[in-house]
Amino acid sequence: MFSVLKNVRASHALVLGVAGCAVLTGAVWLLGQRLHGVGLLPDQGASWYYWKLPDPTVWTRLSAWTCYAAHQITFWWLIHHAQTRVRRYTGDLHRVNVVALAANFGFVLLHLLQTQLFYDGLAQDVSIFSSQGSVVLLLVVVLLMENRRRGLFLGAPAPLGRDVVAFARKYHGYLFSWAAVYTFWYHPMEATSGHLIGFFYMFLILLQGSLFLTRAHTDRWWTVTLELAVAVHGTLVAVMNAGPDGAWPMFLFGFLGVFLITQMHGLGLSRAVRWAVAACYAGALIGVQLARDDLVGALDALRIPAIEYALVGVVAVLLWLGLRAVRLARTGER
């Protein structure tokens, strides 16, 4: 099987993988129908994660944390193996890509089984903000990594250190795999609309991670699609939680604002197309806020871009300090 699959074009594997992610999401929905009888505590606010058992046991906790650790260690080992043994990009799948795809598929099935038997995910023991923050950190590091290729503000690069960007590009796989695997095991595989959208997005991220060192992994249209998917996820979840009068425009136009300011400038679009996209964005934002009779609320769209760009600066400074400390320590040893 390995000898056959490793000759498959990575682009074909990507298309088949996206279809497979949709099928797996359907499996989550189907098996999730068996979870309706699980008793849960009443919702206690924004910082409360609703989908966790009222009376967890050692076994429910151990099942979630053991499976998560096995998935995480496996993924990190595969990344290390690829970086130290393969070390070249190709248009076909490497053997390690086939192993990674099979491993992630196996852990998805394991999570389905673990939810049916024990229900709880990591959410029983850690804050809901840790799961959300891990995905935000992933998006922020992508902005930092792509700074030299597409810029950070309207195509212009931010003054980030070359060694900082190089370090992020070399080791981002370990961080991204943690963000994806941790978030994946944080939630039980429930069949609510929010869970289904979220799991489909996580499946796509796991697929992307499995295609390391292939040209499909760096395809700019595919990677920007993954960045934009968070706008769809955030908007739909906001509508589901608070209805059409909720804060969904902040998520939709906030994440699309990052696309307008940064992400679309790495796609090779002409100046005319970029101006057209900007005009459509502005028209849609003003139209939505006029319909809501809250034109001043359009300023809320600035929140997410402001947070993301501020975090790019914070992450860059922290990386620079860490690299500086390591350099000074090595100099002191010599």
What descriptive keywords fit this protein?
about 325 residues, mainly alpha, about 70% helix
Please provide a written account of the structure.
The chain has twelve helices and no strands. The protein is mainly alpha-helical. It is globular, with a radius of gyration of 21 Å. The protein starts with a helix and ends with a helix.
Distance between the termini: 50 Å
Principal-axis shape: globular
Main pleated-sheet profile: none
H and E string = HHHHHHHHHHHH
Strand content: under 5%
> Radius of gyration, Cα only, in angstroms?
21 Å
What average pLDDT do the residues reach?
A: 92
Helix-residue proportion: over 70%
| Tally of alpha and pi helices | 12
Brief summary of the model shown:
The chain is mainly α and about 325 residues long.
Present the secondary structure layout.
Layout: H1 2-5, H2 10-32, H3 58-86, H4 95-118, H5 128-145, H6 147-150, H7 162-186, H8 193-210, H9 220-242, H10 248-261, H11 271-291, H12 303-333
